[in-house]
């Protein structure tokens, strides 16, 4: 099965072609270049021509370099000893520790059978009111944070990671800056969570193709832990870099692009990663939180757009706050019926009023006279922003709900709101 | 029957090129034999001695030189009693049985019989010895849950046949012969309770297609009243992500007044399918008192499952739906989402290196969409009975922009358009069907004048609201302001519906007629208020009462009491005292 070729026929972008026989689709090969060795993966077979995508990049590869086929697809080591360790985008140690070779598992394995999944039913408490009250995060959910570069998305990820009650945290960094990586490392260390974390880090300085493996590596390891009954939280940042790497390969392979240069299978590619989020019947779970930066704050950009159709909602991070509009947790209905009887009503009612505030705010900025109702809305909007939306607010769900009623009572008469009479009777603060 | 073999010469993603000998059929199924596995594939293009095939499994691990075995058959589904309550993947493999045999993950290269031969069915003959029958005629029936499942002359038989023998009432397995029929040309056929039919060919064993007229009650007010769907009609729900397409489909699948619902979860989230398949067996169908699952088939090919099978899942679902329609039942097929199906076509088209059309979709996209929706319809069957197949598809337009090929291709062929809007879902107005953009060509359960009245109010209310953004509230006359409040009122109390409340989630036709009449009464009433704030207070109080009314059980004591409250508020509208009192009361 092992084959060695010593003649590279073509090099274009990060894709090289060689002549070989008996090679299987998605097999791995090792390229021995003068500059160092790199792994490569079969991405197309045409007769005896084999197309390989080179993880370390094709720069410096000579047509005379040796290509050795390994006769197996990509694998990653898996053991309990991985906790607290840091690996690169090829799954090799980045922290000078020993390589994990005892138990190799295949990555990008088959999809979970929907019949073996259970309906997610456990809330993940984050103590961020905009999440807990309005868009509750649920164990086994897949959820991206949409934002422009520069927003505090890493901080939100780290805070959720520390606050959430999970057994294992896996961080997959794709094309991240070195200081982002250090930030996660230091924050998790200070929070005492590093010993239950595993990092797969591909930084912006590493070859772009290597980043393509990071989600698969992270999720394959997460899946093993979940099957062992562990609750795993996978953090992926930044999935836009992942999509850009896909685009680069697709264009090199001369595929017809569908939208702004991205390949037509972008949806399927992203989905096969995000769909690894799962709650197994009788075993553990995987929750996936990812960062998707939106070029030009444009949510219709193909990456956030396709992502939104795959994930179970999204958090919009704008101006340092989680926006109530557009942010959505599709699974919140699974859990918010059991928290408190006013949870759903507060969730919808406060947002409807906040929407009216936004309209009034628009009118005010155009210089219109404010009616009494408008003034009430303005007061409400201010309180809502400072007591609910501000990311500094760190209170449990129940307290946040109580605060909600206080804000409402402070600004409105009960009948000016949309709440059902029974709820008003029970929760409206008595003066 | 060919049963030829071939050899793989190229692999590109989920498409393989196969060099073959002899004759093969377009859309023929073949199996890749690789490492002891059999991977199901379908021929999608033939050129010389090369067949281009899409593989319904992950192609990881297959090699150039691997053998391909052709089956001689097109991609087909098995039809017979026992389909209801099943949960299949896009190729009609049972997912629960797959889980029993293979655990947490979907195995590669495993195929299961759609119907296990183990079950016995209580057969009652309908046809008599000597009867003349053609394809689709009823030979007998078996009870399947709450339905009379008809045993039909297989649809692929093209001649006229005479019944030579028919089994007596008794219990038989699906593979046992229940009738023997013979054609004039002497062809003799043993009919069992099941047969296969290729998914991409519509079943046409009926007398004629007729115009769909009878409304299909979904119990969603904005649909049934303003943008109705007819039994045998088609509709589409385009909307950006997060606007509530799937929730709307789920509600429809639960409450719609049809006999059978077939859900095709095509390339969407696994989690949503799990909700349906875990909850449906627990939910009671109000029409029958039995579990909802008894009238449901789920075809599930989620986004992480192989792409090619996604394309076929829509056809599989349609074929099963057509089969039950042939029994004279009303069938609703819900496809979520047709965009994923279109994208699967795009992926394959790209790999075939076809010249791309708009947004890289293939040029034949529109005709494929059209022929898919054309499989819906109300048909008159050979025995004079009627069966209908209604198709509702969601569309997931890129960027939420309806000016894209899949939405546009769909709008040309459907009978109703329920466009979801981002603004409405952002403001938590559910269902977020845009009342100004959407349309329907079908007849509503409510008189046209009343609907025109409501639509006019909504449009004028919207105009005033736009104007107020420019001139402000103080620049708006009180008459216009009342129009605006009336528009807001009908939206809040009638068009919006709480899908998570057990009463409000489903409104029967009778109740819709009753409540809508009351709403129109408010719209028709001339109000006069001194100040805009009085008008606002009044309408908010009225809205409050109406919303509470929506939560009361139909014709219950609470319902009647609440109605009296509304009536007295309406009567006393000019009396400020009473407005005040009432609003205080409700608080």
Can you walk me through this structure?
The complex is a heterodimer of chains A (431) and B (587). Chain A has 12 helices and 23 strands. Chain A has 431 residues and is α/β, with parallel strands linked by helices. Chain A has 3 domains: 3-73, Thrombin, subunit H, CATH 2.40.10.170; 77-330, Rossmann fold (3-Layer(aba) Sandwich); 343-427, no CATH class. In chain A, the strands form 5 sheets. In chain A, strands 9, 13, 14, 15, 16, 19, 20, 21, 22 and 23 form a 10-stranded mixed sheet that branches. The longest helix of chain A has 23 residues, at 343-365. Chain A starts with a strand and ends with a helix. The model of chain A has no long low-confidence stretch (mean pLDDT 92). In chain B, the strands form 6 sheets. In chain B, strands 8, 18, 21, 22, 23, 24, 25, 26, 27 and 28 form a 10-stranded mixed sheet that branches. A 6-stranded antiparallel barrel of chain B has the order 1-2-5-4-3-6. In chain B, β11 (138-144) and β12 form a beta hairpin. Chain B folds into 4 domains: 5-74, Thrombin, subunit H (Beta Barrel); 79-100 and 206-440, Rossmann fold, CATH 3.40.50.300; 120-193, Beta Barrel (OB fold (Dihydrolipoamide Acetyltransferase, E2P)), CATH 2.40.50.100; 448-586, Bovine Mitochondrial F1-atpase, Atp Synthase Beta Chain, Chain D, domain 3 (Bovine Mitochondrial F1-ATPase, ATP Synthase Beta Chain, Chain D, domain3). Chain B is globular and about 90 Å long. Mean pLDDT of chain B is 92; it is low at 574-587. Chain B contains 15 helices and 28 strands. Chain B starts with a strand and ends with a helix. By secondary structure, chain B is of the alpha+beta class. Chains A and B meet through β5, β17, α6, α7 and α9 of A and β1, α1, α4, α6 and α13 of B.
